[in-house]
Amino acid sequence: MKTFHTHLLRILPFVCLLTTSAHAASPAPDEIYLGSVAMDVPAAMVQRLAPLTAYLSKKTGLKVAFRASPNLDSAVNELGKDLTQIAYLTPVAYIEAHDQYKAKPLVSPLTHGKATFNLVVVVPQDSNIQSMADLKGKSFALGDEKALLQRAVVVNGGISLHQFSRFGFLKHYDNIAKAVLNKDFDAGILKDTIYEKFAGRGLRKIHTSPPLSSYLFAVNEHLPDETVKKLRAAFLTLKADNPEGNAILKQLDQGYDGFVVTEDKEYDEVRKLIAPFLKPAK
């Protein structure tokens, strides 16, 4: 297996694609660009996705390269406009890509053996906040402004955003965790595996969402069926019970241990949760 630094050197040049025109030419048939919502700064996302793109290239015989995106909107639009052919998306980003551009689900990761995840509301370990009701009049940290599932979980937990003294959009989960640890905000919302990563540093959870359909890899509608089959087969062979698979999965997310095939209907419950927060169509 190639060293991580080799993977990183192989893929770093493609970060510059952030500055390319939206009218860039489509890739060659054997060349695939993999995009992602911005779960961290671009350099960190390169590190997280580099081993996976190298693995997909080896398994499929395609040239798979990573293309970083600054936010949820750009990841969705790049997939829809064929600037990327496959993308790692949140449930909300996938729904938007499906509704706007007919993106299709490919696979979703298993988190500790389950095809679901949870969002959790966290506070500093020594905070006197014990419940969602205690958050009234407090400050709160969220991620991307379009991450509507985060808002839905907070509101369904019993508090409206206007009841906070202030709230801020910090883009990435790591930013939220650090802001709460530093007490820049009284509380914030995290993906379960990010909470696991930071809990030992002094975080405590006060609310957990019901199980939510997982993040997923989706493909655009123009990708040939044969290519889709190759990519899906490669993902399904990734398992945490062997050293190579485990290293790739844990680099992507410390809680991931494999992939399963997913379908659009699996995200209907998420659609219901975010419906009250969608702006009416003009």
Nutshell version of this structure?
This protein has helices spanning 4-11, 42-60, 72-80, 91-101, 148-156, 173-181, 192-198, 225-236, 243-252, 268-274; strands at residues 31-36, 63-66, 86-89, 104-111, 116-117, 119-124, 139-142, 166-169, 187-191, 203-208, 212-213, 216-219, 256-261.
Share of helix among residues?
A: 25-40%
DSSP helical segment count:
10
Give a short account of the largest sheet: 6 strands, mixed
The CATH architecture designation of the largest domain is 3-Layer(aba) Sandwich
CATH class type of the largest domain:
Alpha Beta
Give a description of the structure.
The protein is of the alpha/beta class. The protein has two domains: 4-113 and 214-269, D-Maltodextrin-Binding Protein, domain 2, CATH 3.40.190.10; 119-210, Periplasmic binding protein-like II (D-Maltodextrin-Binding Protein, domain 2). 36% of the residues lie in helices and 22% in strands. The chain contains ten helices and 13 strands. The chain has helices spanning 4-11, 42-60, 72-80, 91-101, 148-156, 173-181, 192-198, 225-236, 243-252, 268-274, and strands at 31-36, 63-66, 86-89, 104-111, 116-117, 119-124, 139-142, 166-169, 187-191, 203-208, 212-213, 216-219, 256-261. The strands form three sheets. The chain has a six-stranded mixed sheet with strand order 2-1-3-12-4-13, sandwiched between helices. A five-stranded mixed sheet has the order 8-7-9-6-10, with helices on both faces. Strands 5-11 form a two-stranded antiparallel sheet. α1 packs across α2. It is globular.
